[in-house]
Amino acid sequence: xxxxxxxxxxxxxxxxxxxxxxxxxxxxxxxxxxxxxxxxxxxxxxxxxxxxxxxxxxxxxxxxxxxxxxxxxxxxxxxxxxxxxxxxxxxxxxxxxxxxxxxxxxxxxxxxxxxxxxxxxxxxxxxxxxxxxxxxxxxxxxxxxxxxxxxxxxxxxxxxxxxxxxxxxxxxxxxxxxxxxxxxxxxxxxxxxxxxxxxxxxxxxxxxxxxxxxxxxxxxxxxxxxxxxxxxxxxxxxxxxxxxxxxxx
Length: 249
What we know:
Elements: H1 2-8, E1 10-12, H2 13-20, H3 24-36, E2 40-44, E3 53-57, H4 59-71, H5 87-103, E4 107-114, H6 115-124, E5 134-140, E6 143-151, H7 158-161, H8 169-177, E7 187-192, H9 195-207, E8 213-218, H10 219-224, E9 234-235
Parallel strand pairs: 6-7, 7-8
Antiparallel strand pairs: 1-3, 2-3, 4-5, 5-6, 8-9
Helix pairs in contact: 2-3
C-alpha cells in the first residue's frame, strides 16, 4: 500500500479500494493501521461536504519505503510520495480507467507514465517543450489509443490542483506543433475546468491545427461519467462527444 500511495501521490479510500481491495471496509482498516503507525497522513478537504478521506505518504512512510527499495537494490524515485501537479484529477482519470478495465475484459490501460516520466519520454522523441500530466495507452475492443493527458490548472480547478492559471492554449499546445520529428501519440487530451475554457482551447486548435488529434473534456464531464473511457471527449471537426477509444481514429 505504501508503494501504491507513493506512486500516485494521494488517494482517497475509494480509490485504494479499486486498486488494491474488493472491499471498502478492508481498505479503510489497512489505511487506518498505516495512519496510526504514522506512515501515512489522513486529511479531508474543508470544502468537501462528503468528507472524503485522502491519504498521502508521510515523512516516516517515505523513509520506510526508501529503506525497503534500497535493501532490494531498486532505484528510489525522485520526489517519492509527493503529489505532482493536478494529481487529484490525474488519479480520478487513472483509477476510473482501472475500474472500467476491471469490469470489461476487452479493455485495458497500458504503459501508464506519470508527469515526470511522460515528459522525459516525450523529450526522447523530440517533443521537449510540453509538460503533460500523464501518458498512457488505452485499449478497448481491439482499438488502441496512445495519448498524453494535460490537466488545466485554472482557478476553477484550484481546489483540486492548487496551482495558478494555465498558459494560453497556444502556449499549452505549441510544443506539439514545433516537434521536429512529429508527435509519438495518437491524441493529446486536455481536461478543462469549465466549458468556457474548453471552447477557448478548441478555438486555438482550430486557428492553428496540430499534427495530432486534440480531445477536450471538462472536469464536470469527467466526474459525472463512470470513467474517462466514456463518451466525454470533443474532437475538432467531429460532431458530438466521443469515447476515448474513438479519439485519434
